[in-house]
Amino acid sequence: MPWYRKLHWQIILGLVLGLAFGILAAANGWSGFTNDWIAPWGTIFINLLKLIAVPLILASLITGVSSLKDLRALSRIGGKTVGLYLVTTATAIVIGLVVVNVMRPGDTVPDSMREQLQATYETVAEERAETALAMDRGPLQAFVDMVPENFFGAASNNRNMLQVVFFAIFAGIGLLMIPRRTAQPLITFFSSLNDLIIKMVEIIMVVAPVGVFALIAGTITTIAQDNLDQVVELLAALGYYCLAVVLALGIQTAVVFPLMIRTLTPMRLGAFFSNIAPVQLLAFSTSSSGATLPVTMEVTEKRIGVSEEVCSFALPLGATINMNGTALYQAVAAVFIAQTLGMGLDVGAQAMIVLTATLAAIGTASVPSAGIVTLVVILESVGVPSAGIALIFGVDRILDMTRTVTNVTGDIVVATVVASSEGQLRAV
Ligand code: ASP
Fold it and tell me: Would you say the pTM of this structure is higher than 0.85?
């Protein structure tokens, strides 16, 4: 049995044991022990992955772009990739909107629970709203934010991945434009850095099952904080909303993506999904597409058979800008908040959500809980009070885990489709 297959089962085991331990810990008051002795191993594991995310993006994108034949190849592959990212994001949002309008989860929240939720999460919600509004400084701000003024500043913060992506593509284009002889030493350097990072990923993945166990156990005790009853109560009030999000994510992940693979590539669905399972499990456990990226790249190239050229361009870009799950979640959440507050959103407002959620998902950093911050921008655009995020805060972590799975699956699906259309999908 190859290592990633074994790994897949080991990660599932880590996840199930982490879940069981987390629930036991919350029920028996072992939160202190879990926080002191278990959770740190999860933090170390996720830090190891984050540690290599920036060098990986840099090395793989520079190698990816500079190894293309010419600028024409870049614009063709780049155009297809970005085009598919936008189309899948918009599709995900529309699915979210249909589900939330049909299920109307906002109508099921009792008034007393609504007031309690607003009171409990008022302060955090205000803080997040302030962060988001500080970010929103005019129509072109997203472009301004993409261009760093200092490379090291950009590379020193994982939230600035988009700036690193910008720099790497820019440098890759420059390398394509200078004589090959002068460019070659740098291309060799970055490609060797790329190989080194892939080896480091393999080493980190040896401890993935333990890391996943610790991450899940830590997450559960943090959410429950020795008070499981409160979590159960919250889930009862917001259960229907969670169900709407998960159902819509399920349609995107288990219907739309398989349809794309089936119709646009020669891959067998069973093989595709069983090979990407470790990536999905890791996305679920870490809630971060950035932290999952090293494994996404390894699996997509080695197990799915997407060429290095397409992988190294499409995946780092996808991890930063393509967030189908986040965009879908934001659309459902915005309408849910409006419904709970008794505000109707007409067709114009919902069309506005399609537009703003596409942009907000592009601007969302690939780290845990980033989606709830950019949700504020969407709420503002349709006139729903941003403090409304207080309503959904309590269940955000769980939904973050599920939407991140859709985010990474979307990246792999698009990379596979692009590779297939370019004749760069090898049979594995
Ligand atoms: N956690 C998500 C990701 O990394 C972003 C979000 O908060 O929606 O893909």
Answer: yes
